Amino acid sequence: VLTALSLAPSTVLHGHERGSPAVTHRHLRAWIYLALGIVLVVLALRTWWVGRRHDPDDVPRWYKRLQRVGTKTSFFTGCILPSFPAAIAAGAAIFHADLRLGGKFFALSLFMTVSSLIVVIPVGMLYADPGAEPKLARVTSWAFLRRHTITFVVLGAIGLFLIARSTFRLLHGV
């Protein structure tokens, strides 16, 4: 398996016949995205399968630890530390965009604002109306009970998008 994986990039890039269109780095990137999409769909199916076999009220250890985090810590963590993969992707896209410095700063500020909203809105609701805690607890409970389904839908949608996009690019040479 490791041999096949190590030889795959050179085969894809240099394994074409003479006279056929040359394969570029875009083809390799499409193959990588195709593989990533397949992995995400498999992970989505695994999550769905695991969710069907486990008790929905069973609380994982990592979730119990998250419940001990205080409101202020959650607020500042959400404002300062957006999810790292999204931050890396957004930073790379903003850095390579054809924008002036002011446009890049605006795009970065917009990303930070949107990525913080998932923490800022619930905490803001708690500070504005302390009676909102039961409502937020119901939403949290609903999401927790359906965490496997939510993960299945998100991973599956992203995986199917990557598969469709890379298949289109491979078939049409785009």
How many whole angstroms does the radius of gyration measure? 22 Å
Measured by DSSP, the beta-strand proportion falls in under 5%
Low-confidence parts, pLDDT < 50 over ≥5 residues? none
Cα shape: flat
Mean pLDDT: 77
Structural class comes to mainly alpha
Beta strand count: 0
Biggest sheet statistics: none
Number of helices: 8
Helix content: over 70%
Q: Cα distance, first to last residue?
A: 29 Å
Describe this structure in words.
It is a single chain. With 174 residues, this protein is mainly alpha-helical. It is flat.
Features:
flat, mainly alpha, 174 residues
Concise account of the structure shown:
The chain is 80% helix and 0% strand.
